[in-house]
Amino acid sequence: MAMGLSVEAAAAACGIGPRTVFTWQGEHDEFRQAIEDGRALALLFWEKRAIALAEGAPGNAGLVSLALRNRSRSASGWVDKSSVEHTGAVQVKTTNVLDVSDLTDDELDVLERALRTTLAAANEQ
User: What pLDDT shows up at residue 74?
Assistant: First the structure.
């Protein structure tokens, strides 16, 4: 991942399927932290490439731009969404939406377990 690979590509290079990686993240805190660290290193790789291109180094700016966009918050499913309702006055409502439509069944199971644990803890307080 330090060379710019995504989690899925790095897993494939190691002969590990993406579902296994997502399952391990849910089961092993140390592994989840390693993945988070790897994501930061991948972002650093692509940001350094963008800076080098801006300083005149050869390369494909479109490719670097795409790689950076794919590592943004929206790539993880989070988007800032604004809606406008007209009722005589303009009201703007901003919400965070998590798009889970591309998650695998295993990933959905991990997310559901995490949400249930969080809700249970909140209800106990």
Answer: 44
Helix pair 18-27, 29-54: axis angle to 10 deg: 120
Residue 75 banded pLDDT, cuts 50, 70, 90 = low
User: How many other C-beta atoms can be found within 10 angstroms of the C-beta atom of residue 11?
Assistant: 20
- Under DSSP, is residue 80 helix (H, G, I), strand (E, B) or coil? strand
Domain residue ranges in the chain: 7-71
Buried b (16+ CB within 10 A) or exposed e, 43-76: bebbeebbeebeeeeeeeeeebeebeeebeeeee
Note the pLDDT tens digit of each residue in 30-42.
Answer: 999 999 899 889 9
Beta strands of the chain (E only): which ranges? 78-86, 90-98
